[in-house]
Amino acid sequence: MYLEEKDLAWAQETLERTAHKLEKVAQRSAEKIPYTTVDGVHDDKSGDKEIGWWTNGFWGGIMWQMYTLTGKEIYRNIAEQNEKKLDADLMDYEKLDHDNGFKWLPTAVADYRVTGNRSSKNRGLLAAGNLAGRYNCAGKFIRAWNDWPNSKVDRRGWAIIDCMMNLPLLYWASEETGDPRFSQIAANHADTAMKAFIRGDGSANHIVEFDPASGEMIKSYGGQGYGEGSSWTRGQSWGLYGFMLSYLHTQNNAYLETAERIANYFIANIPDSGLIPVDFRQPEDVKLEDSTAAAIASCGLIELARQKDGRQQKIYLNAALKMLQALTKNSFNWNEEEDNLLTKCTAAYHDEKHEFSIIYGDYFFLEALMKLTDKELFIW
């Protein structure tokens, strides 16, 4: 992958500044598993009630990336502590769901890849086995959320685009065990997602409901986007990066072509500012942003650029650079006395709170910079 000298210099300088801040943040948040910040201070999801929160692997992921970048033991120690805390989640069936990949790929599996720790491999395989157990044989999809307390909505047949990012846990399990069942489940889900989630224009549904008994598709939902048929940007980025990862693990060209379709749609909708809205189809008078969608999509675009050359490679790299540079200028907290990096992350369009810090936005921003500078630990 060819990066112009000025762009490489920008990526290296931005990575150095980010790493310098993260060293201070790590010292302050060493005992935590953060999700967001309150008045510039990381919160903590490591307690008994919140240890199952789906983002609880990303702080460990940041620490493993920083350990790879610097070799400093503080990052490894914090990452290992994060991983061990997640044992309380791993041993609680009600807390396990389709997001096992988000929790144990950046923690246990990353640990095993770096250190060869057998306990970490065991954690990763336990998480993969549970994820595989969510597979619906009739519909060939992995079920999303568990039943929610006091909810009258039947979610047994629900699948979501986010799960494309959890499939690498299953690909990894097949590689480690030699058992093809894990990768077969992952590929079957990816095949279903290509048909049921990705629209003709390259945009993606967030939620698709199937009949859990027959596997027949029933309908799609707007989910965390503006509404049914809209274009939730983080969902587009999950699809883009997720299909790229399925291609990297399987070499199935259909996944590469799907990632490219989503990428072309995404690029065509990037505003001139480079700042990504919560939904590409949100009302024109709504200016809400989601920095996480920009960071995740940038990672997917960089991986896609690695598979291309010439003009196509340049298009994908330039789109990633445009978004990342826009984030650093407009939606980034360079104050080293505060804990977050990105400032305008949004979890869902219809939430009351918008444009705040979220840990996975910080993770994917760091990962994108490390990809551009060829210093990344491959976590997925």
UniProtKB/TrEMBL annotation:
<feature type="active site" description="Nucleophile">
    <location>
        <position position="99"/>
    </location>
</feature>
<dbReference type="InterPro" id="IPR052369">
    <property type="entry name" value="UG_Glycosaminoglycan_Hydrolase"/>
</dbReference>
<dbReference type="GO" id="GO:0000272">
    <property type="term" value="P:polysaccharide catabolic process"/>
</dbReference>
<feature type="binding site">
    <location>
        <position position="99"/>
    </location>
    <ligand>
        <name>substrate</name>
    </ligand>
</feature>
<feature type="binding site">
    <location>
        <position position="162"/>
    </location>
    <ligand>
        <name>substrate</name>
    </ligand>
</feature>
<feature type="binding site">
    <location>
        <position position="234"/>
    </location>
    <ligand>
        <name>substrate</name>
    </ligand>
</feature>
<feature type="active site" description="Proton donor">
    <location>
        <position position="162"/>
    </location>
</feature>
<dbReference type="GO" id="GO:0052757">
    <property type="term" value="F:chondroitin hydrolase activity"/>
</dbReference>
<comment type="similarity">
    <text>Belongs to the glycosyl hydrolase 88 family.</text>
</comment>
<protein>
    <submittedName>
        <fullName>Glycosyl hydrolase family 88</fullName>
    </submittedName>
</protein>
<keyword id="KW-0378">Hydrolase</keyword>
<feature type="binding site">
    <location>
        <position position="238"/>
    </location>
    <ligand>
        <name>substrate</name>
    </ligand>
</feature>
<dbReference type="InterPro" id="IPR008928">
    <property type="entry name" value="6-hairpin_glycosidase_sf"/>
</dbReference>
<dbReference type="InterPro" id="IPR010905">
    <property type="entry name" value="Glyco_hydro_88"/>
</dbReference>
<dbReference type="Pfam" id="PF07470">
    <property type="entry name" value="Glyco_hydro_88"/>
</dbReference>
<dbReference type="InterPro" id="IPR012341">
    <property type="entry name" value="6hp_glycosidase-like_sf"/>
</dbReference>
